[in-house]
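Re: that chain you flagged

S.,

Sorry for the slow reply, it's been a week of failed gels. I finally had a moment to sit down with the sequence you sent. For the record, here it is as I used it:
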Amino acid sequence: MSAARVAPSPTDAVRTSSPRPRLAASDALRVVAAVGVVLIHSSAWGPASTFGGVNSITRFSVPAFMVLTGILLGYQYSGRDLGLQFMRRRAARTLIPWLAWVPVFLVFDLLTGTLRATPAAVSYQFGTGFGHLWYLLLIPQMYVVFAFWPRRWSWSLAIGAMALQTALCVVRITVAFPNGWQEQLLLTYGFLLFPFWLGYFAVGVAVGRALLARSMSQSGGATLRSVIIGASAVGVGASGYLLLNLRYTGARWAGDLQGTEAFLNPVLPLLVFSIAVWVFAAAPMLMRGSPALARSLRFLGDLSLGIYIVHPIFLWLFGRMLVTKIAVGGATSILAYFTLVLAVLVVTVVVVRLLVATPLAATLGSARQRLERNVPVLALRS
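Prediction finished late last night. Pasting the structure tokens below so you have them in one place:
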């Protein structure tokens, strides 16, 4: 994006009333990230020696949602005035679902014994965002950040924000501050604080604005796309290897890079961006070649937030049935694990789609959608 004062940027030239086409690749990345979240949580049912790698690699998923948030905001809202309506609509996508589902998971966790019925345990659960629902408290922070985000120098800001995020993550695992405040703030609550995610978001905004400018100029070609697909695939393999094998020997808090704290691993952005680039380069081509795939990804993409919210309930239910099989090891363990993942995904999709057809759709951050006879995700051919 040009920073010249005399020449308006492409996004400034877009009229506020101009419709902006849906980014097909955004549906694909939503689905990939949603499946990744299910894999994160389901891998906890198996022995760590067997599925620890799955748990580590699929940590890309939540940062991918953050990158996508930046992309869609940069693409849809650059050059448009933001007001109270913008904040109300954005808040409805996250805060209302958080308020609606916290009581549900509080009761569920207490009844299943997942959460101890003590004031300290319940207080900690609320203080850390209430389990997997913490992400619904992080995203509104980024909406506020975007409201003040400069309209120019997008890539310079992205580089600076990524450097800041990485530096904070390195400090978090290497430096021990006095009085224990670092352990309380950076280790316990770091994943809830927007500065630790700012780089993902800033890169997303820069990409979104670049995609908007590209849609106006119609630049690009098949050869360049092929090069990007190949390079990003290599990047996925290389960054995945680093994530699984790089050890921060001597780092004071390196042992805490697990659970939600694993999202703050300084190496993780390499994997996140490699996957995001591959999806955005390859998905449009694949979706153009298969209308059924395009419909299915759009269908699942629209339900992705609901899948994120609801799936732990069915993971617990099916996990109790399969956990002994998963613990056996070998081929039986692998088969049982993927059966668990598939069962959770299928049932969650069905339940979320039924909920979206009711007034409860708002609790999943969605507009109400009546049920249709032809369910796109079940279409096997165009």
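What I noticed first: Residues 1-17, 377-382 have pLDDT under 50 and may be disordered.

Talk soon,
D.
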